[in-house]
Amino acid sequence: MKEIRGDAKTIRQLLNGAKYAIDYYQRDYKWQMKQVQELLDDLSVRFLEDHQASHERSQVEKYGHYFLGSIIISDRDGLKYIIDGQQRLTTLTLLLIYLHNLQKTRSDRVQVSELIYSEKFSRRSFNIDVPERNPCMEALFTGISLDESSQNESNRNILGRYADIGDLFPDELKTSSLPYFIDWLIENVHLVEITAYSDEDAYSIFETMNDRGLSLTPTDMLKGYLLANITDESRRLVAANLWKARINALVDIGKEEDSDCIKAWLRSQHANSIRERKRGAVPQDFDKIGTEFHRWIRDNEEALGLNHPADFATFLEKDFVFYARQYEALSKASKAIVPGLEVVHYNARHNFTLQFPLLLAPLRKEDSEAAIQTKLRIVGTFIDILVTRRIWNSRAIDYSTMQYAMFLIMRDIRGKTPTELVSILTNSLSQEQETFSSNDRFRLHGGNGKQIHNVLARMTEFVEVGSEMKSKYGDYIVRSGKGAYEIEHIWANHPELHKDEFPNATDFEEYRNRIGGLLLLPKSFNASYGDLPYEAKIEHYNTQNLLARSLHELAYQHNPGFLRFLEKTKLAFQAYKSFSKAELDLRQTLYQSLAKAIWNPDRIALIAGAA
Fold it and tell me: Whole-prediction pTM value?
């Protein structure tokens, strides 16, 4: 009988030339965007703790290490079957494919292909060898588009998470830091591979490591700590029931929502410090709450006012219950449009998870419902404007980039009134150097497709709702499957038709991708008409949304709602019989004006004034 073995391995050691199989009943890949974001945030924050631009690449060897947990393998007749860990290994493979594609044209690229696949007799096989996934993985590796609607659920998740990696990968790691990060990822990130030589042993290990009766989460430990310090038995029972009700409500929303809620609550109300962005700096309140909030509370009893048994009861019954209710409402608003809290959903569409502690920061238990809603709209609108401005100027909005600045704002707005919020947040926006005016060349590129889609959806809705039409925003944001919308280029990809204005095809491509040359149209439209010249498409544009229709002269006839919108906003909409460089320039200026109108800082004061 072979012994059970545990080996600590780097990603290179784990994946180089390896083949992992997955039994047919375990093959679903289920990770969602949230898990991908957490993985990328953890990796990038840990890497950036040590990275300095002045370093030679050889110094990466001395950077800190990161542990990604364990995987459990059953070695059956020389084939390695993954019993636990396929979600992480699949996601790591997707990340490696993304990094492989991202650095293709770079002279300093790091070779990672041998960690993704092996090749024999010109046939490529991937390290996680699942036959029904191979066409999907091959398409991602080679950059070929796939029709998501024809894929099974697991493959659709793979395609979706690969797109999320593209959206979420930090911009600051895409430039000179990229080869350093890849070196660190494959050499300094470790997993423990636990190998058994029978399925029975492998599953026994899996069950032991995941025994729910023994494995307490930080949420469980915090509950035990708070309740143990409430000496009045009847009050402890009340507190326990309140805790259970709130935690169950959060768990019903989604996985890990309970711990995310506690982190957002404690950071919003009690974090007074954050780790400095320099080598050797130690974790502070904000960081510790994110990794071990149960210990952080225990270590900060006095600062939290937890001096007597009654204080612990109040902390749970009043503080936790209040902020958990608010978080629950915000989490639901982030997933679907809630009237009055639309901005929460808009911000979530950009994967801006830092909004929750910011939104909770000014709230006080004594606030009326009206005051709470006003504060949430003010802060949410501030985030909406700030994030969209950064996107327009090609600035990063990922967690590691924004964390420090958002902590400072969170601390500044803690417990503030609506009037105080308006002053603080409008002043913060006024200090920003980059606005919509500072970039007249905003365009679509490889890494901002989802962001451009969101911006176009907001612009289209703004024009239509302003023209007294029903909002179809919920339709416009659908990016895959039945009823999907896609970004439409007004110019088809035929540089030869524009040689008189663009002798260089690269210049044509840059102009073609400017936002003024883009629309949001049904996927079926793109398939049927996208390749046609403008003069052939214009009649079809007149059957689509109002932003597209505005290119056609008939949009300005017998359309009183649109005409009133134009009179009110003074936006320079006009029809075009042809669409050359001059027309695209005019349309680019129009879209800039639209952005200024939609994301106008004056909206913040109007919210407070209407309360």
Answer: 0.83
